[in-house]
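Recap quiz, item 2
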Amino acid sequence: MNVKDIMAQLAERHPGEPEFHQAVKEVLVSIEDVYNEHPEYEKAAIVERIIEPDRIFTFRVPWVDDNGQTHVNIGYRVQFNGAIGPYKGGIRFHPSVNLSTLKFLGFEQTFKNALTTLPMGGGKGGSDFSPRGRSDQEIMRFCQAFVTELWRDLGPDTDVPAGDIGVGAREVGYMYGMYKKLAREHTGAFTGKGRSFGGSRLRPEATGFGALYFVENMCATHNIELKGKTVAVSGFGNVAWGAVTKATELGAKVVAISGPDGYIYDEDGVNTPEKIEYMTVLRNSGNDVVAPYAEKFPNAKFFAGKKPWECKVDIALPCAIQNELNLEDAKQLKENGVTLVAEVSNMGCTAEAVDFFLENKMLFAPGKAVNAGGVACSGLEMTQNAMHLSWTNEEVDKWLHQIMNDIHTQCIDHGKDGDYNNYVKGANIAGFMKVAEAMMAQGVV
Ligand code: 2IT
């Protein structure tokens, strides 16, 4: 395999998909050497097959707003790779959603899911629908319209969607309700459901909690004390909320959170139940802004239009969206003496930022390892649904902790580069090898 040739071919076949190309290139660069030690992979065209989704659904989603006006959005489901299990991955509702975004997310999901040790293939879906400012009834109608088109291709052993940006328990509930009506089956065809109808305990917290369990592992491996460290978090959604909650519980101090409007610096820490719950209030307001935090807690300052990466902190946790941390931000973090950067959003750092972290041998871990706790807990929800029972908090948390420790071990095992641990390489090689092995065993399909 020659990365340059494969990338040139990809660009020719699928022009105008920059996020997808970015995600593919990162993986190929990581695995190139290992791949080329396996001539049988080359013969079976594993790389050529793994970068092409199994199939993609694109469909029109018409819906009627509260004033009787009809709108049309585009819906997608990318069933990326089913080698190790049913397609699994979230649904994103955000105006930035297009095929490039969902292909990058589905591709990442394939390796992330492999890392979880659970039998789940990779998939992703969504729409360019913006939930911002929409009423509950509008959201419900949109979710129903989306699933009406997609339901035939979903199922507990076929394809199991969940939440992502813009899709939480409410949206999953509406989608699942329509799915169940059409399929006439009460099965675990979605995860992230409400607890009263098969949702797993800890699923809302799992991505953020898992990320901090991973960070704990990174700290322990590098003789760093997490307790007392200052943390900057971007975003104020479900993932950021889970990360802030667990970081606080572990004795770190989160001093920054952010939204599309700017960031909040709270030197006292976002560390009381009232402050942490206020993140949920902000999120549920549907306005997508963090500025009101500084009105509610006047010791905090709001910096309009700025990113939290300019703050002098020990730990940086991007928890918002892809490419939210660029080369300039990476340089700023280094200059400020940051100790550890863990990507919690999917591909939260640009390719240039990741290269900078690796070239400077900084302690950095990629999203597909750090944020895998979310989908891992979804896997545990599928297991509970299949068994028709529900586990306690302690049981789910124990699994989640174990899985995150396991992912960390895989990263170290495959990412050792002298005395530097290259987590990007480690995660990509470990995830890729598992999928490649399964594809080899199943023949050319
Ligand atoms: O990016 C992700 O891993 C998710 N949005 C969660 C996917 C899932 O199926 O729980």
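The domain at 3-187 is CATH 3.40.50.10860 (Rossmann fold).
The first helix runs from residue 3 to 13.
End of item.
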